[in-house]
């Protein structure tokens, strides 16, 4: 099953994982243990990068997956193949999460296919590097916030009536929220908003038995950076400034999303995990 939700215009983002060299490592590294058996997860930005790795790991742990993606049909089809190879069901939903109606339709299609939603992973995001704040156009500023934080509000608003006690929401923030980023002013600002959203939404939903947490990755090798305007020089040394001295791989981040979604994290809400290569941050 595949649905195109609304009209989406190509502008080079978020980029194809199939074109990256070397290829990101998305493969789960251990056998599953049924930690998500019988669950249904809707994952935004699940066609590639961290989203694909999360979909693969969730499937190995027993979840069926709704793969929400923006443009890359081939990447989304490959993620679906990966999920199905784990013996789980998958649907692909082509949608711009910055559009409220598209999020509502994505949730409706997920319910139609699976009858429930237990986990919402808000992973979709975009970035546009700029050297100076005056280089950021109003259109870019609005779009970055529309995708990165408005999209999370819209997806949770659509899913909320269908989430029962025991459900989990996991948002993707970033190390840039804590460190700042001189070339990603609008992007890092949205990540600060996401962290505040996570903590506030946790306070709002915890009495209903719904946990809300976040993951703040460091530099991870996904289509986001090479296709998001990073310079060749920056890419050549991407991740080298971390204490570990290299970029992370998506399958080094996905376990944090698994932990926060499953019962292993039953006493955690409003928290942020930091798979960032050893960078020490507060919060």
How would the blueprint of this fold be written?
Blueprint: E1 2-5, E2 40-44, H1 49-60, E3 64-69, H2 73-85, E4 90-95, H3 100-114, E5 119-122, H4 138-159, E6 168-172, H5 176-179, H6 185-205, E7 211-215, H7 232-236, H8 250-261, E8 272-273
Parallel strand pairs: 1-4, 2-3, 2-5, 3-4, 5-6, 6-7, 7-8
Low-confidence blocks of residues: 1-11
Secondary-structure-based class equals alpha/beta
Q: Strand share of the residues?
A: 5-15%
Q: Going by CATH, what is the homologous superfamily?
A: NAD(P)-binding Rossmann-like Domain
Give the C-level CATH assignment. Alpha Beta
The total tally of domains equals 1
CA-CA gap between termini: 40 Å
Number of strands: 8
User: Please, what is the average pLDDT?
Assistant: 91
Largest sheet: 8 strands, parallel
Choose one word for the global shape: globular
Order of helices and strands: EEHEHEHEHEHHEHHE
The appropriate CATH architecture is: 3-Layer(aba) Sandwich
Q: Brief description of this entry?
A:
With 283 residues, the chain is α/β, with parallel strands linked by helices. It contains eight helices and eight strands. The chain has one domain (2-6, 25-273): NAD(P)-binding Rossmann-like Domain (Rossmann fold, 3-Layer(aba) Sandwich).
């Amino acid at each position: 099953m595949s649905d195109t939700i609304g009209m989406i215009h190509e502008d080079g983002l978020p980029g194809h994982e199939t074109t990256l060299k070397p290829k990101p490592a998305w493969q789960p590294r251990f056998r599953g243990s049924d930690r998500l058996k019988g669950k249904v997860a809707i994952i935004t930005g699940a066609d590639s990068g961290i989203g694909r790795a999360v979909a693969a790991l969730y499937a190995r742990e027993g979840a069926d997956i709704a793969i929400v993606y923006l443009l890359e049909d081939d990447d989304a089809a490959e993620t679906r193949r990966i999920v199905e190879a784990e013996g789980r069901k998958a649907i692909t939903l082509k949608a711009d999460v910055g559009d409220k109606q598209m999020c509502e339709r994505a949730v409706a299609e997920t319910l139609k296919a699976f009858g429930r939603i237990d986990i919402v992973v808000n992973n979709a995001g975009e970035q546009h590097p700029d050297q100076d704040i005056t280089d950021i156009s109003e259109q870019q500023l609005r779009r970055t916030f529309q995708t990165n934080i408005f999209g999370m509000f819209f997806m949770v608003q659509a899913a909320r009536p269908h989430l029962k006690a025991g459900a989990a929401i996991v948002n993707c923030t970033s190390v840039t929220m804590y460190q700042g980023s001189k070339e990603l002013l609008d992007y890092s600002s949205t990540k600060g908003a996401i962290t505040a959203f996570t903590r506030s939404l946790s306070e709002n939903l915890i009495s209903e038995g719904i946990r809300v947490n976040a993951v703040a990755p460091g530099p991870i090798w996904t289509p986001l950076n090479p296709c998001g305007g990073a310079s060749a020089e920056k890419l050549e040394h991407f991740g080298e400034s971390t204490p570990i001295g290299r970029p992370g791989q998506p399958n080094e981040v996905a376990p944090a999303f698994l932990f926060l979604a499953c019962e292993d994290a039953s006493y955690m809400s409003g928290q942020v995990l930091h798979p960032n290569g050893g960078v020490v941050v507060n919060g």
